[in-house]
Amino acid sequence: MLKTNFELKKILLLRIYFFMIKYFFFIITIFSCGLVHSQNNWIKSKNKIKIPFELTHNLIIIDVNFNGTPLKMILDTGASNNIIFSVSDNDSLVMNNVNKIRIAGAGNSESIEGYLSKKNTLTIKEYKTNDFEVVFATNQDISIVNKLGITINGILGSSFFRDNLVEINYQTKKIIIHKTTDSTLKKIKRKYNSAKVEINKNRPYILLKTKINNYNHSLNLLFDTGLGDGLWLFENDTIQCNSNYFIDFLGRGLTGDISGKRSRVDEVFLENLVLQNVLVSYPEISFFEDMKMHKTRNGSLGGEITKRFNWFLDYENQTFYFKKNTLFDLPFEYNMSGIEVQHAGSQWVKEEIRDNPPNASINANEFIFENSNLRFNYKYELKPIFEIYMVRENSPAAKAGIQKGDKIVKINNRASQYLTIQNITNLFQSENGKQIKLTVERNGAKIDYEFNLEKVL
Questions:
Q1: Could you tell me where the DSSP H helices lie in 234-365?
Q2: Interval 160-169: pLDDT, tens
């Protein structure tokens, strides 16, 4: 339990940044005082535990059970601690040993109220800890579901990694927890490259060589699976964005919006492996003035790069092992439309389905209308509404006249109810010059637009 006078003097700083590059992504940093190492239990006697995950927008999403409540959480090496920021209206959440705290976030608004909870039970497959510490951010419209298209309840941070050897296999979409043994490490060392990391305040930092504007740099980067972007750099006297960039809305933080530059770097090196023409974001440093960052940190290494490798994360020995996978040669693409889309609620959509035989059963959400000898069967389903929440200045969409707040009705003659945010994102990154036909609803009227995707980087 935290003492009252300690609570008054100390503020737990929580930084939440939601960025988008190629997809929408976010990174959470929590500066917490005195984190307690969790007491991990393996429910079954095994040498490894396999945990399937969903890879969405370069983020690792896993199903967990928190004090009896099922949640979806993003696995985030860049977070010093854990956070829960949303729970379904149908679920109740039990939190133990709760203390009120103040939370300050990136952006321009004031700090908000939250809670720090200890001694909770977290279960993931056969993995279990009874000493799970979490921050609960209350009454915040973080709306991750709006950006990713699926419900996200929180972040699973460093406590998951520090007590075990954790394998991340992006090809099979599995997290595998290993009991660290000499024989296991010997097998890994034979097949994988290795990189020394520094663990600072429970967060891993890795040295990475890059070539930017034809100059070689050795960068100290936060290894951050909670960042959907591949590379995020802070500009300074030696690290500068090149002349080919555009200013973009990078994301929405807990307390404000974040903007910055988007560009590319020449090369990124991981040992003898080279990635070329890599996308990079340079966020405006004014948004992070209050951050207590590692003093030598140059930026972050995120999911758009890390997904191209399979990893073993050995926090105890401060060594990460990696080898390239089948995603290695994928091009680094970005949104060429200038449109960012989010969910904006749901609507009932009526669909005609095949006629049923006279004695066939129907579902509760299906309705039958009879007209003489004709029989019509319709199904009503809740479908998402897609809304344009940001249009990049001077982008093809902006020049065509598309506006923030427009609701998407059709894209290339396909009704929006048959799409997902991932479908839309893939389309907007697909091909330079590709024609996009967009029907939107604005103030009750439907308007048709046409534009071509334009590659400027």
A1: 303-306
A2: 888 789 999 9
- The span from the CA of 316 to the CA of 390, in Å, is 43
Residue appearing with tokens 């699926």? 150
Dihedral sign from CA coordinates of 265, 267, 268, 274: positive
- Three-state helix/strand/coil letters over 192-251: CEEEEEEEECCEEEEEEEEEECCEEEEEEEEECCCCCCCEEECCCCCCCCCCCCEEEEEE
The CA distances from residue 433 to 22, 72, 337, 423, in Å, are: 17, 38, 10, 18
- What is the distance between the alpha carbons of residues 243 and 213, in angstroms, rounded to a whole number? 9
Query: How do beta strands 69-75 and 154-156 pair?
Result: parallel
pTM greater than 0.85? no
Helices assigned H by DSSP within 260-404 = 303-306, 396-400
Rg (CA), the chain: 24
Share of the chain residues as helix, strand and coil, in percent rounded to the nearest 5: 10, 50, 40
- Half-sphere exposure for 262 (CA within 13 Å, toward CB): 25
Torsion of CA 97, 102, 107, 110, to 10 degrees: 150
User: What is the signed CA dihedral for 210, 213, 215, 219, rounded to 10 degrees?
Assistant: -30
- Burial code of 87-104, b = ≥16 C-beta within 10 A, e = fewer? beeeeebebeeebebbbb
> Which residues make Cβ contacts (< 8 Å) with residue 216, sequence separation at least 6?
209, 210
pLDDT at position 31 over 60 = no
| 155, 101 Cβ separation under 8 angstroms | no
Phi and psi dihedrals of 333, rounded to 5? -110, 160
Q: What is the H or E stretch that residue 57 is in?
A: none
Q: Cα(447)–Cα(368) distance, rounded to whole angstroms? A: 33
**For 256-276, how does the pLDDT look when each residue is reduced to its tens digit (9 = 90+)?**
567 889 999 999 999 889 999
As a whole number of angstroms, the distance between CA 249 and CA 59 comes to 20
Q: Tell me the residue ranges of DSSP E strands in 271-336.
A: 273-283, 299-301, 309-314, 319-324
Q: Kindly state the DSSP code that residue 284 receives in the 8-state scheme.
A: -
What are the distances in angstroms from CA 172 to CA 53, 123, 315, 326?
Answer: 9, 22, 23, 11
Alpha helices in 217-362 (DSSP H): 303-306
Phi, psi torsion values for 244, nearest 5 degrees: -95, 95
For residue 75, what is the DSSP state? E
Q: Which of 25, 77, 20 is nearest to 221 (CA)?
A: 77
- Residue of 359, 377, 357 whose CA lies nearest to 368: 377
Cα 41 to Cα 160, 220, 224, 312: the distances in Å are 12, 34, 26, 20
Tens-digit pLDDT profile for residues 267-311: 999 988 999 999 999 988 766 655 556 678 999 999 999 999 999
